[in-house]
Write a structure and sequence with these properties.
Chain lengths: ~280, ~250
């Protein structure tokens, strides 16, 4: 076989394999859209569940998930970004930096159910928050922290040293440089961390299982100390433990579709901000 | 004498980059540093505004005085030093901001917030950097839209805006085409009566064209320091002679 022919065969295999990844994604999305679309209407997203969740809508689960996304990000985004800044801009290379990084990576590898158990022990029991949005948000926030820290660090690392030097050479302090040069440039990439963690947080079931999620609660949360329904857990409930599983199936697909749409919209918004920031620069 | 070095030794970790440097740089004149790559000329330049403070494992022995004041003394605030000693880098490095904001940056660092005052100083700096005519109409456009040569003059304007006494230039034209280089050199000659300029260059003709004093460095040592035409026409040391005549380097 000629080298040329061998090359084209290998390229063909690579192309087929990469296209099959796209195909799988479309298959999943298509499956959810086709099945979920039938049940989605205004009532589905604006009503309380009824009749043992076989009828009505999923409004409380949508609101619950949006609250959890917002709550976990309010907690994790500032802490994560500041940790990333500390790691990259202040901490000198050495054992301390290696240690913190190792721990961050380990934190990212902890199974989410363990976060759930920890959240229950600390926030629900020890701090007496009870099953509540705040306990769930904090637990999800912990889960999101490593991703945010890591992407912030990478975003800062990729910034050319010459910007820092130029700023220092004009008499700017480190803090002024970070605030006025480094962060504006890195912000679009830091947002990537936010997007990734929103995707992760909105889909997690295990961490909210013991900390916030209600099996059936046909009312909207009115304070951060309320329990709430959430989309992924609601989906789990519909798929496994309804009174009539076959009847609940379409509701489950609808819920899955809404969950995907929420993640998609969050991504689009974050991407929009990113593009806008880039243009400004 | 504007800048004096006294027995300066400088180390990067175990590597001794500068060996016993003793000389004086005159005020309001252009001094060129020449020498082959790795001879320590950029390292020395970056000691004058304490840019090497950022390097892990760097260590200085001896003293560097500017206006008679030891710039490494504990009472020196490094930010204040850098306001007095501006620097232009090898690669043009404007911030990803508008042309106006690039020049205004150093003013804002100093806490200036009066709009008319900032505007006045920005325009003045751009005029002094011979860039005003080219950017007058596009001040709010991104600095990245400028050509490399214009970007470098913008970086010079950015340094001039905060009125330094000393301007350090680290191979300011090495990334530029000949026409842009000529403009930078013209600018340096314009500025030399008002500022103490120290320029590191690889281009020996450039040193001849712009400087009145030249220091030749080799392997971390200051081999010879004298008037530029003496260095290039009748140097005392044979190493200098070999280098300026192109026998090595």
């Amino acid at each position: 076989m000629t080298a040329r022919r061998k090359q084209s065969i290998i390229f063909l295999i690579i192309r087929i394999l990469s296209l099959s990844v796209v195909a799988i994604l479309f298959l999943i999305l298509g499956f959810i859209v086709v099945h979920g679309f039938q049940v989605i209407n205004w009532g589905f997203v604006s009503q309380m569940p009824k009749e043992g969740m076989m009828e009505g809508g999923i409004l409380p689960a949508i609101v619950g998930t949006l609250c959890l996304i917002a709550g976990s990000m309010i907690f994790a985004f500032p802490i994560g970004v500041m940790s990333g800044i500390y790691m990259n801009e202040y901490l000198r290379d050495g054992w301390m930096k290696r240690f913190v990084r190792l721990m961050t990576d380990n934190l990212a590898g902890v199974p989410s159910i363990v976060f759930g158990l920890f959240g229950m022990a600390l926030f629900v029991n020890k701090l007496h928050f009870g099953d509540s949005l705040i306990a769930g948000s904090l637990t999800l926030g912990l889960l999101a922290l490593p991703v945010i820290i890591r992407t912030t660090e990478e975003a800062l690392k990729s910034i050319d040293q010459s910007y820092r030097e130029a700023s220092f050479a004009l008499g700017a302090s480190k803090l002024y440089t970070i605030k006025n040069v480094i962060l504006p440039v890195a912000f679009p990439n830091i947002l990537t961390g936010l997007i990734l963690s929103i995707g992760r947080v909105s889909g997690e079931t295990a961490p909210i299982l013991f900390t916030v999620a209600a099996y059936f609660l046909p009312k909207l949360p009115s304070s951060i100390f309320d329990q709430a329904m959430a989309l992924p857990y609601h989906l789990y409930v519909l798929a496994t433990s309804g009174t009539d599983i076959t009847k609940a199936r379409p509701m489950a697909y609808g819920t899955a579709l809404i969950l995907i749409l929420i993640v998609l919209i969050c991504n689009l918004i974050a991407n929009g901000i990113r593009k806008w920031q880039r243009k400004k620069a | 004498m504007k800048i004096q070095t006294k027995d300066v030794n400088f180390y990067y970790g175990d590597f001794k980059a500068l060996r016993k440097i003793n000389f004086n740089i005159p005020e309001k004149a252009v001094t060129a540093f020449i020498g082959p790559s790795g001879c320590g000329k950029s390292t020395l330049l970056r000691l004058f505004n304490r840019m090497n403070d950022l390097v892990d494992g760097a260590r200085l022995e001896g003293q560097i005085l500017i206006d008679g004041q030891d710039i490494y003394a504990p009472n020196i605030i490094v930010e204040d030093l850098r306001k007095k000693v501006g620097m232009v880098f090898q690669k043009p490095n404007p911030f990803p901001k508008s042309i106006f904001e690039n020049v205004a940056y150093g003013l804002r660092v100093q806490g200036m917030s009066n709009k008319t005052e900032i505007e006045h100083k920005v325009v003045d700096a751009l005029k002094r950097a011979a860039l005003w005519g080219e950017v007058e109409a596009v001040l709010d456009k991104s600095a990245w839209q400028l050509s490399g040569g214009q970007q470098q003059r913008l970086c010079i304007a950015r340094s001039l805006a905060i009125n330094p006494d000393v301007l350090l230039m680290d191979e300011p034209a090495s990334a530029l085409d000949p026409i842009s280089t000529a403009k930078i050199e013209e600018l340096i000659l314009d500025l030399k009566d008002k500022y103490t300029i120290v320029i590191v260059t690889h281009n020996m003709q450039q040193a001849v064209r712009v400087s009145s004093k030249t220091a030749f460095f080799y392997l971390g040592e200051l081999v010879e320091f004298n008037d530029t035409d003496i260095i290039f026409n009748s140097p005392e040391r044979v190493e200098t002679k070999n280098y300026v005549s192109g026998k090595f380097g």
